[in-house]
Amino acid sequence: MPDEAISCYEQPLNERTRTFLRLEHLFAQSQHHQADTSKWGRRATLATMLDILTILSRHDLRTEVSKELSAQSSTLARLQNHSGIDHGRLDDVLEELKSLSQAMQNIPPQFASYQIRDNELLNSINNRSAIPGGTCGFDLPSYQHWLDRGLDTQDDNVNQWFKFLDPFRESISLILRLIRDSAEPGAHTAEGGVLVHNTENDTQLIRVLVANNEAVYPEISAGRHRSTVRFMEQSGAQLRVSQCGRDIPFRMACCKL
User: How far apart are CA 55 and CA 32, in angstroms?
Assistant: First the structure.
């Protein structure tokens, strides 16, 4: 079955992985919007950037990311003497972990909070964003003025605002890639649309891969010792949701590193 016919659904099992997945989503969204230099593209870029800064300002993620990079570096370093290891690839990953760790150390503590607080434009946008349509021209003429300025000025500003975000994006991307690559998906069948699975200790992420032509999606609930995958389907113009009653073949990986 070709890869494009399969959808992957993920369920984090701890708060750190949950936050990393949310940031990965937002970073991907921001990169997409940054390619759009229209006023609407700029608005979308800044809205997503402020979401990222808000998450970073609420959590000590500089420390969390640094700890995770260090932990994964230690885990992988223990593999250097194992046979059957691609040492060239391992050395590249260890060097990347080291480089990103150094980059994280160069980021000022609490920079996200200060960036929102001390930049009048970003602070104004952030304060008005909770109101539907609250960033339109008559609400924020300063925003309209910035959007009417030349692209070079806007690019300089956006690049400066993203300066400390790139190490977070690269670090989280690498951490999640290593977690995902830590386990190969195995074949399973959800009898009557449900599978109950014993979860290994320290599992960080459950990944469920299901063929699109099954026309179902999984709801994944997971505790410390057991996880449940329940396949649901949508029907009618109102897309009403109900549990699927037939057997569903799928693949699943319980990832930990």
Answer: 19
